[in-house]
Amino acid sequence: MFAYVISLLLGALGFLLVARLLPGFEIRGGFRSAFVVALVYGILKMLMQKVLIVVTLPMVILSLGLFILVINGFLLWLTDKLLERFEVKNFATLALGTLLLAAFDFAARAIITGGTIF
């Protein structure tokens, strides 16, 4: 349970960091808004990512797993559409935001698990 809370806090921090780095990636409000965005994104990822990977398995295999970034981008876009306090302006910002969030998630998982990522 404690690891989930830490993961959620690091996710909110990641969203704030990406919002600082990318001009079209906006979170209206402070850390509380970023926390809500990270919570909704995390729930969408938990509920839909595995199903989408199975549905698009041939694409995932042919792209050697890189298609998972497309799935994460779709989930980020869906989060944008569900929340008024979060907005991604265009496709390029969505793509870069997805890459940065994936890198931040990778680093956060390494911190939480003590270096064992896989």
Provide structural commentary.
It is a single chain. The chain has a two-stranded antiparallel sheet with strand order 1-2. About 75% of the residues lie in helices and about 5% in strands. The protein is mainly alpha-helical and about 120 residues long. Helix 1 crosses helix 2 (about 30-55), helix 2 crosses helix 4 and helix 4 (about 65-80) packs across helix 5. The protein has one domain. The longest helix is centred in the middle third of the chain and has 25 residues, at about 30-55. The mean pLDDT is about 90.
Number of strands: 2
Annotation field: number of helices: 5
Shape call: globular
What's the main sheet like? Answer: 2 strands, antiparallel
* Order of strands, widest sheet: 1-2
Over all CA atoms, what is the radius of gyration? 14 Å
Low-pLDDT regions? none
Distance between the termini: 19 Å
What share of the residues lie within helices?
over 70%
Average pLDDT, all residues? 92
Strand content: 5-15%
Order of helices and strands: HEHHHEH
Number of structurally distinct domains: 1
Structural class: mainly alpha
